[in-house]
Records
---
Amino acid sequence: MRRRICAGNWKMFKTASEARAYVDRFADLLPTIPSSVETILCPPFTALPAACEASRGRIPIGAQNMHWENSGPYTGEISAPMLLELGVQFVILGHSERRQHFGETDEMVRRKTAAALQSGLQPIVAVGEPLDVRERGDAAQYVTSQVRAALEGLPNTAFTDLVLAYEPIWAIGTGRNCDPSDANEMMQSIRSCMPQLRNVPLLYGGSVKAENIAAYARTSDIDGALVGGASLDPDGFARLAAAL
Ligand code: PGA
């Protein structure tokens, strides 16, 4: 059976002290979430130490980005060993906001994914099409090409630690979530574009809420969610994870 995962992407929200308060509250709510659902919290870099400390191993913590080199002259960047030392276990890579605002290319996402896996972090690799691509009917081709580009050259054994997130750009933060059957159809295209993806957890992201998560969870190929806005409140996110 594939893993069920509910990951909260906090984006550029919450200071270290806010993260600590969130994690303390969320840990109290863990008994309300079935243990079959893995919940992951992804705070901004500066809040990672506080989140890891407060979690005390109870909730896996993820970062939202990293560099592909372990160290070097890359001002403003953070590497996998720096994250691992804090106790970080996951890292979101290739989020559309990074591709859009910070110029991340498929090639950079590929290097980051390989580096994360090599150092023992589990990458949550995000892909997704803009609205014009969806409207001209090319979404599956666009997204599967992003997936192949990000995963090219990985050894088969690396796929055990990989998570993929399909987030149509037009659905992120807009309240306009993708129809669950359309999202599921995309997951099937993703899963069949590389045979190694058969057992890889595929998350849907884009305006997921406690009210709509069940419709995604009931489909054949959606294994969980990557949640932005609706992950910022611990009570709401716990309800969402329980509904998954
Ligand atoms: P959203 O963001 O849930 O606020 O739409 C999802 C994401 O960007 O990961």
---
Amino acid sequence: MLKFTDITLPEPLLRAAAHLNYISPTPIQASTIPWLLENDGDLIALAQTGTGKTAAFGFPVLSQTDIEKPWVQTLILCPTRELCLQITNDFTDYARFMPRLKTAAVYGGASIQKQKDALKAGPQTVVGTPGRVLDMIKQGALKIEQISRLVLDEADEMLNMGFKDDLFEIMGHAPEDKQILLFSATTTREVTKLANTFLREPHRISEGNEQQGAENIQHFFYRVHARDKYLALKRIADMNPRIYGIVFCRTRIETQEIATKLQNDGYNADALHGDLSQGQRELVMNRFRSKYVQLLIATDVAARGLDVDDLSHIINYHLPTEPDVYIHRSGRTGRAGKSGVSISIIHPRESAALKAVEKRLNREIVYLPVPTGREICEKQLFNFIDTVERVEVATEEIESFLPNVYKKLGWMSREDLIQRFVSVEFNRFLSYYKESADLNQATQRHSPRDDQKVVFKTFRLAVGRRNGVTKRGLMTFINRLKIAPSIEIGNISIGEGHTLIELDSAHESRIMKAFARNNFNDEPLSPSLQASSRDDSPEREGKYSRKGSGSGREDSYSRSQGDKARGSRDRKFSKNSSDKPYIRSAKTKAPKGITTGKRDYSGPGKAPAKRKKTSAQDA
Ligand code: AMP
């Protein structure tokens, strides 16, 4: 295996590499560094973020810098302030044993004067974002007439961000005979155009297949209804208690909404988007870097330049329209030889986009069912027990308290103690997920009525035979609720104290609201969604006769507007005192001590006064 010591780099750089614990060059470094040390032609290097590309150009640039010359010899352009600072810091690390080498950073959103002072100090290398660099050139603070090298880092992103004109103008100030090193994660048409305009017979290096993701990243997807994406996201977080990742959203508004919801639900999450001030941005990024924030909800643009090495997960809340963007996002995990997971939460209409990504990746994206409440509980329980096993016991500090504690708990058996200690953490937690719905896209069936596919979900009602529920009565009741002009009813199972009824999932939220607002024989229905397993049905029965058909045959039932009149005769159904869907008591607290907080119950629903027990379900 090639080692840094095998490359003829100047000794201070080899020392810096060793100091950084860079033993072997990464693939992009192995192919770029030796070539650049021996050639002064232009270069196009295709490399993902996190592949070690900064050192791939950084070591050669520094080794070819003449520290005797106090003028700018290399200009590095990059898309964002964060990346600019990152590269500047990396250069400071690489030049740790080159005391006379100076690097200055020039980026927007910060004091111009300080940056001008830094430029006056005679840096040999300048790293900057195109807009501010151009300003500095125009103000005469930055002179690039004598540069030997121009590095365009993340060229695709600079073009995506609309820096094309600035780049062209900057080029006009640079000398003809400079060397251009263009680094890009993707080869878009714009990148090719830029390269064709400014680079001369460039040498091309690509780290593996630039169109494919890294091998050490696993790709999974979950398929849920669009409205269940948030719940699926929470379950993914719950299933991965030590998750440290970025959730990519499409818009700033969505980013903020999801982050706020997650925070309200007790998760360590925050939003990163373009509406934040520079100060807020830095605060969020620092909290994320220090892992205080475990889930960063970000737009693609905002996440650029955020350099974090050990992300465990990338989550695509929506699939990006361009497969390249997917590859770029997922390239943020599995960095520097580590493994990573890229997850997409898709709804049925995103299936084609998923296929396009698979094709570009040349790999299967593996389907995973959204974990059930039980699976999550088990995972969290063992995570908690792991934490207990690994906790450092502050023997000295607690010593004086222990005799009393032992005395107080002395009457309990070991099993008792364990059970209680687990229950402290898990009673509420288990109840959160008890009866939680199956979020996976429900099973599909054909309606015999119109041969159109109807997706059913099973609703559980807290009334049964003992409350006078009959199939006919239930159908009449549903008729009266005016949920939709036409609603399919599948199987109905009536138990002693509860009923399971399958209804067209397209109307799920309206069904839930209607059930929550109305009582059956003065009894609240306490509706909840039932997981797809039907093993616990109190009674399995066939599909219902379609009302009004008169045929009496087993069929699905469709409610029509014509049924409205009949509903008014039925006096059994009284209005519930609560006018909000009962989801879960907002007062129910998330279990503490587990990474994340409140579970699937994001709804504002309040329990009706009569109800004592919460009925856990997904909102
Ligand atoms: P970059 O793509 O330049 O942002 O680098 C990604 C990460 O890989 C950074 O944290 C670097 O410090 C690290 N890195 C770069 N080159 C090496 C190397 N040869 N050995 C180990 N880590 C490296």
